[in-house]
Amino acid sequence: MIIIFTLTGIQYLLFIQLINSGQFTKLLEQAGNQNQLEVLKGIPKLIASVSLGTFTISLIERISAIFLHITCSILVFFGINFKNKKIFF
Fold first, then answer.
1. Predicted model pTM
2. What is the mean pLDDT of residues 54-65?
3. Which of 43, 56, 63, 77 is surrounded by the most beta carbons within 10 Å?
4. What does the pLDDT read at residue 16?
5. Contact 37, 69 (CB under 8 A)
């Protein structure tokens, strides 16, 4: 979870810094083909459309996914180590 949020946050911060410093236009000029240029032109709109709610929802989803994985791992551990498996049914 931390790695996913860190990598995404670093990408956003990098593009924000490029836009604020005026280097983003140089990046647009270096685009190799029309497809790359269109994708790069859409990045400022995408960054502007991300809200705090989007980050909050993704954080809640990641925390619940980690909690679910830990819970399932504990259940498998108990299922392997306990002789009386009737309590699991």
1. 0.53
2. 82
3. 43
4. 82
5. no
Look over the chain and give the mean of its residue pLDDT values, rounded to a whole number. 80
* pLDDT surpassing 70 at residue 11: yes
* Cβ atoms 85, 79 nearer than 8 A: yes
Crossing angle for the helix pair 2-21 and 34-49, to the nearest 10 degrees: 110
For position 4, what pLDDT does the model report?
62
* Both tokens assigned to 76: 């498998």
Report the alpha-carbon distance of residue 62 to residue 68 in Å, rounded: 10
DSSP letters, the chain, are -HHHHHHHHHHHHHHHHHHHHT-HHHHHHT--SHHHHHHHHHHHHHHHH--HHHHHHHHHHHHHHHHHHHHHHHHHHHHHH-S-GGGG-
